[in-house]
Amino acid sequence: MTKRVKEILTLLDEEYTTEYKCYLNYETPWQLLIATILSAQCTDERVNIVTKDLFQKYTTLEAFAKADLKELERDIHSTGFYHNKAKNIIACTKTLLEKYNGQVPQSIEELTKLAGVGRKTANVIRGNIFHEPSIVVDTHVKRISKRLGLAKEENPDKIEFELMKVLPKEHWILYNIQIIAFGRSICFARSPKCKECFLKGYCIEYKRKQGKK
Fold this sequence. Notes:
mainly alpha, Endonuclease Iii, domain 2, elongated, Endonuclease III, iron, nuclease, HhH-GPD_domain
């Protein structure tokens, strides 16, 4: 770990603490899996609103696996991309029941074979359920990692591997949590609060705007 990366992580720890938290509401591993599938191209706040009723209506994996596609589409409509999400949720829950006896698998290889599950979703599960060091590249992590010069790629999977090389393994999950908080409060996609930013001294984009090399 370079001195620069260590300083960035220390500042993040000081600002947001080292407390582990998940921004999606869930009670069981399979509920987190479904919530994360729903979170694609959707805010966590919206997903939590939808799952509050959804998990009361469909209380078991079996209920999701047997769900009527059109009805499930209506139930999750406000999360966007509802047709694919509903189809994937039904297929995913069927696989969990048929192949894994209702348990959510741990390995990234098995997780990414489930319908609707890419590396991002798999890493959310690995980090929150199994406490496996993992980096979740959402829009905040992608945008801010590039602004800080910790990543250069556009593809989220490639950014994940870039970050794995520069961040210490014990900080992978925390980095996700802290950067999401940072992205929601200061480092917006548009009109970031640069004057209030405690990381502006490390921000490539800010230096560029200031005409610095």
